[in-house]
Specification:
This is DUF4837 family protein. InterPro entries: DUF4837. The chain has 344 residues and is of the alpha+beta class. The protein has two domains: 3-148, no CATH class; 154-341, Protein Transport Mog1p, Chain A (3-Layer(aba) Sandwich). It contains nine helices and 16 strands. Strand 5 (96-101) and strand 6 form a beta hairpin.
Length: 344
């Protein structure tokens, strides 16, 4: 989210509370599915169906169903994600984004988008879109983690804790593994959409505002060195590497932070972590896909000693030729949000 979008989000979120305190029925709807109410001009739909960042093909951020306000009945109010649009100069003097939780069902996110005119809604579309996607993505990450909470590979989690000194949730279906020096690779070995998690150590990265591109280059070099050595193809002449930017491939990252050129890198608030997105490929073989990585830095001298002065990197990557990858990548990204230094 840009600084402007973050500022507007803070200004617009005038309603952010939980609805009824009574017993609510369960909500319905698939992950990353949104019911859009009252969007007569299709402006908000365009915001919600913008391409997901960091995928090798075009996929919408959300699967959107549209309904008129007059047809928004009791059954539709049970949807898990609802975005309601209202353009009315008697109600709004400026663009507004507000949200409520658990209004008609549970769990539920109801977001209200308001503006005094279509022109103001259109003029503020980029910031409104960032705010909407941030709210809905956070809700879906929370839903994904709630689904995963009691369905995890605790044996793998314990092994990672002992080896790297970090806590990390591992999905229960990730049972295939490979281990090496300062490296663990876990996979669900699915035939349609194979999801993978790798954990490894690298020399500590020191983020600086003036050297973002240098930091990205260093991350890529370290990633290529570790994963090129650890993840091989059918022969040793095939290995994993990071896709270099080209004019065509840059279109995949058209929403990326300009400072990082082709990898979307942003420091995460209140945590000494950095997140990267990009594409991987198998050198010497026709394989590839998207990845998302998170770097956990030692936060004090005790952590630095425990981690041998090195950062811990956790990466999720997908191999799903000819398949949609959005939900699989979002699932792996949700796993990365559980990464933290272990207290044990």
């Amino acid at each position: 989210m840009t600084r402007v979008a973050a500022w507007l989000l803070g200004c617009w979120l005038l309603v952010a509370c939980t609805g009824s305190n009574g017993v609510l029925p369960p909500s319905g709807g698939r992950l990353y599915e949104v019911l859009l109410v009252g969007d007569h001009e299709g402006l908000v739909r365009q915001m919600l169906t913008a391409d997901v960042e960091g995928l090798p093909q075009s996929e919408p951020s959300f699967d959107v169903s549209v309904v008129d306000s007059a047809r928004f009945d009791a059954s539709l109010r049970l949807s898990r994600n609802i975005v309601m649009v209202n353009v009315d100069p008697t109600v709004y003097t400026k663009p507004h984004v507000g949200y409520e939780k658990n209004v008609w069902a549970k769990p539920q996110m109801v977001i209200r988008v308001g503006a005094p005119s279509l022109s103001q809604l259109r003029r503020n579309a980029p910031a409104i879109a960032s705010a909407l996607r941030a709210l809905l993505n956070r809700a879906e990450i929370n839903k994904t983690l709630a689904m995963m909470r009691h369905k995890r590979n605790t044996k793998a989690e314990q092994a990672i804790r002992q080896r790297f000194g970090v806590d990390l949730w591992i999905p229960v279906d990730m049972v295939a593994s490979k281990q090496g020096d300062n490296f663990v690779w876990l996979s669900n070995n699915a035939t349609a959409a194979m999801q993978n998690i790798v954990v490894y150590r690298v020399p500590t990265l020191s983020p600086t505002v003036s050297a973002v591109n240098a930091e990205v280059a260093r991350f890529v070099a370290q990633r290529n060195e570790v994963l090129g050595r650890a993840i091989k193809g059918e022969t040793d002449s095939m290995w994993m590497t990071t896709v270099e930017p080209t004019v065509d491939r840059r279109l995949v990252f058209k929403n990326a932070d300009d400072r990082s050129l082709w990898l979307n890198q942003k420091s995460l608030q209140h945590a000494p972590m950095t997140i990267y997105r990009g594409l991987w490929e198998m050198r010497g073989d026709d394989m590839g896909g998207p990845f998302v990585s998170r770097v956990l830095l030692p936060i004090d001298s005790a952590r630095a000693t425990k981690a041998d002065g090195k950062a811990v990197v956790v990466e999720g990557f997908v191999f799903a030729p000819g398949q949609k990858k959005r939900n699989a990548m979002h699932r792996l990204e949700a796993v990365l949000y559980t990464l933290r230094w272990s207290e044990h």
